[in-house]
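Example record

One chain of 513 residues, shown exactly as stored in the release files.
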Amino acid sequence: MAEKMDTRERQKKTDDIYENVDAIRGKITMEIEDLNIKRIHPSEHTGSGSVRIRSSRAAVVCLVLLCVLLLAAVTVLCFFFTQERQQLISKNENLTNEREQLMLKNTNLTNEREQLILKNTNLTNEREQLILKNTHLTNEREQLMLKNTNLTNEREQLMLKNTNLTNEREQLILKNTNLTNEREQLILKNTNLTNEREQLILKNTNLTNEREQLILKNTNLTNEREQLILKNTNLTNEREQLILKNTNLTNEREQLILKNTHLTNEREQLILKNTNLTNEREQLILKNTHLTNEREQLILKTENLTNEREQLISKTENLTNEREQLILKTENLTNEREQLMLKNTNLMLKNTNLTNEREQLMLKNTNLTNEREQLKWDKNYLEKCLVKVDGWIYYQCHFYYMSTEMRSWNESRRYCTERGADLIIINNREEQEFVKNISGYDAFWIGLTDIEVEGSWKWVDNSTLTSGFWWHWSPSYSYYSNCALSYSSGWFDYSCYETFKWICETSTSQIVS
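Predicted structure tokens for this chain:
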């Protein structure tokens, strides 16, 4: 708003200057006409005539003062326009540099986006593999529950066998009462049986101890395996959440927060389910412990214990292998989880930085757009204001003055230098075409001469001519033709004392009327 107010004030000042100049010109024109009428019809030298002569002299003095004021106003205006032009050039360069920086940042953001898409694809593949592993672990859990059911059935069978053995024991006691006469023989047999029984008891005790150790190992391995399965499940859930967060980070941050809330609720539900499963597992372990104690009391046959021992050894080996595999998987998942958490942290930090940079870039883009529109408006306004200034023509940051009089080359140059300019210097074909367009078919002096050294053409700024737009047979290298003349067909060399029109050139900071 401040810039617009300044621009409007500048426009008002410029309009006031032009209006004052037009009014002054009108007054000067009227006074000159009055003077001409007085000169054509001179009056007698009377008192009234002398008064008129004094008034005409006062008018001339006023005319000179007004010309001086006009010259000062135009000088101030040109200096003001030069400063604004330099500011516009500086702003244009800054906008160009900022545009290149924005394009470079856009390229970097595009590359980072492609890398994030590739990482997201890899994480999706890893998530599918983890889902497959979870399915396998679920199947193993069902197998373990089936094994527990089989152990319960074996316990019932052993209880049935114990009942049968109790019945047989009662029958044996009855037979022992009836066979008291044969007691001595039975004592001998009983002694033998006692020895065999002690050996069997010893073997049974050893097998029972081994079995308890194996059961304890199996219980420990089972607990470790369940803990590892639980950790694997938790890690899998956390990894899925991290993958989901990573995917949502590439989208908008607000959706990520909402999905993260839902995932947190799901995680709490899973934790609750996990707690319930843990309680059920503890109950199963307690039941298994009771069943194991009862089975130890009920098992009497060595063959069954041996078979069970071999099975337990086989299961122990399998569980040991599974435990090692689970430990390895857990370590891998832990490492992957840490890497994903680190990547997630980096992505969140990058996302925050990118969001801030994006907002800053959008703000800068908005400011640059506003400045560009303001510059366009100022440029159009300045171009309209600088089209013509008291006979001077504006073209590509320079002013050109085309004379209507005819003078020699030296007098033409003197006319230009007295007004802070010089004869035109044509540096390129575009400027030559511009001169042709504004001059038409008239011939004009230009600031090119070889008066110092014959054949060595130099411009009025003492620079050497490198390439020109001479006509076919020019220059003629004549001793008297030392000044250059521009015509519609090209350049000619003429005598500097010939009289032609001329073109003055100056920059916006040096123009004077």
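Notes: The longest strand covers residues 481-487.
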